[in-house]
UniProtKB/TrEMBL annotation:
<feature type="binding site">
    <location>
        <position position="337"/>
    </location>
    <ligand>
        <name>S-adenosyl-L-methionine</name>
    </ligand>
</feature>
<dbReference type="InterPro" id="IPR010280">
    <property type="entry name" value="U5_MeTrfase_fam"/>
</dbReference>
<keyword id="KW-0479">Metal-binding</keyword>
<feature type="active site" description="Nucleophile">
    <location>
        <position position="363"/>
    </location>
</feature>
<dbReference type="GO" id="GO:0051539">
    <property type="term" value="F:4 iron, 4 sulfur cluster binding"/>
</dbReference>
<keyword id="KW-0949">S-adenosyl-L-methionine</keyword>
<keyword id="KW-0411">Iron-sulfur</keyword>
<keyword id="KW-0808">Transferase</keyword>
<keyword id="KW-0408">Iron</keyword>
<dbReference type="Pfam" id="PF05958">
    <property type="entry name" value="tRNA_U5-meth_tr"/>
</dbReference>
<keyword id="KW-0489">Methyltransferase</keyword>
<dbReference type="GO" id="GO:0070041">
    <property type="term" value="F:rRNA (uridine-C5-)-methyltransferase activity"/>
</dbReference>
<comment type="similarity">
    <text>Belongs to the class I-like SAM-binding methyltransferase superfamily. RNA M5U methyltransferase family.</text>
</comment>
<dbReference type="InterPro" id="IPR012340">
    <property type="entry name" value="NA-bd_OB-fold"/>
</dbReference>
<feature type="binding site">
    <location>
        <position position="269"/>
    </location>
    <ligand>
        <name>S-adenosyl-L-methionine</name>
    </ligand>
</feature>
<feature type="binding site">
    <location>
        <position position="289"/>
    </location>
    <ligand>
        <name>S-adenosyl-L-methionine</name>
    </ligand>
</feature>
<dbReference type="InterPro" id="IPR029063">
    <property type="entry name" value="SAM-dependent_MTases_sf"/>
</dbReference>
Length: 405
């Protein structure tokens, strides 16, 4: 059965929406035809195309699940990201000024995770998962990657082939570093001597800087570093890193603007310190994260740095042991940048804290909104919220927001 639908808007997961049905790869105002009665269905024909429709740059678009919106012109696409943020905040009763989306694609992603699985036959497939599926779409290139990841896919293939005998699905995270590619594997489990040797050979053949399996060092040519604000920072295996250089710059710029002239700042959920290292140009920083490897990396970078105010780096689980009122005494500002789950426990303490400013960075508007409501209940006023887009063509949006008393 063929049905003709008019797309009213693009939903928060990137699908066109019409009469309660989800039609991927469509745009507002488009008239499309779909077959069948499923709730989510790709169009069989675009009857009237939007003037904002553009040619997707990637031949895998439509099968690869990595991108949802390559067919949308940049301006309306970035405006949509702002709109989904505004709508999520409004659902929680928050109506701040929302700035235009900052396009932080820059030169592209500096980190990527490929998946390697045996396909339906016996073929080993290396690529990304298809949309809403575990099936692998084998790819030959990805337009999202930075030039520094040009060799990432061939390297991932060599690594996957070396572990074919293990027979398990493997995730291959590749990060561009100053020394070359740093690869962290998840999934193969403990390796026997033969697989380990094969893997070392593959790592050498691919010219990797380092290869780790769930944090366990398999091969290291040189310890990988990244450059953060002019400082060399050692990278812990698989440790968090903002997806693009431009994204890190954009978020850090907004964080610095948010803390203003603060002279003592806490950087909570600090990772390897992209905010702490920049904040320490002007302020004494207490930097906290639960990842001991990230905290050790930041501490090492601080020891090698010059011209910075002191940074005290500390390993602590902020979900179970948030900084308490006594810990916050003497601080002018707090920055927090939690994982997707948000910073519920810490926000409850911050709500009552006697500090000048709070800057929140978030990769999840819904948990941010929850935490912002806690802060608002404690008398904090939410200022401008800025959406930042470093996950180009996905439905993912990040943000920076400032709170004042
Ligand atoms: C979104 S990342 C931000 C890292 C850093 N601000 C950056 O820009 O690179 C979130 C960080 O929260 C840390 N984290 C996750 N759960 C945590 C917890 N329970 N307590 C403290 N830190 C945690 C992770 O290790 C990660 O470094």
């Amino acid at each position: 059965m063929t049905t003709r639908l008019t797309i009213s808007h693009v939903g928060h997961r990137g699908d066109g929406v019409a009469d309660g049905r989800f039609v991927p790869y469509t745009l507002p105002g488009e008239v499309v035809e779909v077959e069948g009665t499923e709730e989510r269905v790709a169009p069989s024909r675009i009857v009237t195309a939007s003037p904002d429709r553009v040619a997707p740059p990637c031949p895998h678009f439509g099968t690869c699940g990595g991108c949802a919106l390559q067919h949308w012109a940049s301006t309306p696409y970035l405006a949509w990201k702002r709109d989904i943020l505004t709508a999520t905040l409004a659902q929680h009763g928050l109506h701040p000024e929302v700035a235009p989306t900052v396009d932080a694609r820059g030169t592209g992603r500096r980190r990527v995770t490929f998946h390697a699985r045996r396909g339906a036959g016996t073929r080993l497939e290396v690529g990304f998962t298809a949309a809403r599926s575990h099936a692998i779409v084998a790819i030959d290139a990805c337009p999202l990657l930075a030039p520094s990841l040009e060799r990432a896919l061939p390297a991932a293939r060599l690594v996957a082939r070396a572990l074919e005998g293990v027979g398990k699905p493997i995730d291959i995270q590749v990060t561009a570093t100053l020394q070359g590619l740093d690869v962290e594997l998840r999934g193969p489990g403990r390796l026997g001597e033969k697989d380990r040797l094969r893997l070392m050979e593959a790592a050498n053949a691919a010219g990797l800087a380092r290869l780790t399996n769930h944090g366990d060092l398999v091969m290291q040519r040189e310890p990988p570093n990244v450059m953060i604000d002019g400082h060399r920072v050692p990278l812990p295996p698989g440790g968090f890193l903002q997806a693009t250089d431009a994204g890190e710059e954009a978020l850090a710029h907004l964080v610095l603007a948010g803390v203003g002239k603060a002279k003592a700042v806490a950087d909570l959920f600090c990772g390897v310190g992209p905010f702490a290292l920049r904040l320490a140009r002007q302020a004494k920083v207490r930097a906290v994260d639960s990842d001991a490897g990230a905290v050790a990396s930041l501490a090492q970078a601080v020891r090698m740095a010059s011209g910075l105010k002191p940074i005290q780096a500390e390993t602590r689980d902020l979900f179970r042991r948030p900084l308490m009122a006594s810990d916050l005494k003497g601080l002018d500002a707090v920055v927090f940048d939690p994982p997707r789950a948000g910073a519920e426990a810490q926000a409850t303490i911050l709500a009552k804290a006697d500090i000048g400013r709070i800057v929140a960075v978030s990769c999840n508007p819904a948990t941010f909104a929850r935490d912002a409501c806690s802060l608002a209940a404690g008398g904090w006023k939410l200022g401008t919220v800025t959406p930042v887009d470093q996950f180009t063509w996905s439905a993912h949006v990040e943000l920076v927001a400032t709170f004042t008393r």
